[in-house]
Amino acid sequence: MLFPDWPTILAPFSTYGPTPPIEQLRALERRTKREFDSVMEKKKENNIGFWRMFHSLLLADRGLCDDALLNRLTLSMADSANWNQSRPGTRDALNSIAESHRIGVISNADGKIERVLEKCGIANCFLTVTDSGIVGHEKPHPAIFAAALQQIRAEAQECLYVGDVYSVDYVGATRAGMQAVLFDIAGAYREDGLPRVESLTELQAALT
Questions:
Q1: Domain coverage including residue 47
Q2: For labeling, which of 14, 26, 120, 192 is most exposed (least CB within 10 Å)?
């Protein structure tokens, strides 16, 4: 629902030349998801950092080795205020889904994602917002899903979770007892046979 403000996030990168076009960023997102999922399968803790891996690959593709720049890019990505972009029609689609479903947010964020949702005009589409910066656990840890279920007052088997990273969202939700579908706008999982949608419109259709 919310997407990165790439011009703001990648501003430090401009020192080294033009920032990558959105098509290249999408391709890098697909690549990162595959590599991140592979690493996560071998680890029990989410201690790698998806966006750190993303930016490491971005710098490597440009032949750059700059830890200070990598840290700046990763920190900028972790700032929920920089996730302030949404697609046209997002609020209408969410309101339509909310007519027949109780919906909430579970986010790996910095404790401020609800404020960003408010600024983007979609916070009141949701009954609850569960933020890892407040809960103290990030997806795929079961505690954040348990906290969200408690907030929305639902049983896991009643719920469908929608998220974009297999090893974090799909695995975390299904292990917590939920059904899950991948919100796969980048197309990272098109060939995997997993339940997936590429837009809120597709999600609406799948829910009817």
A1: 6-82
A2: 14
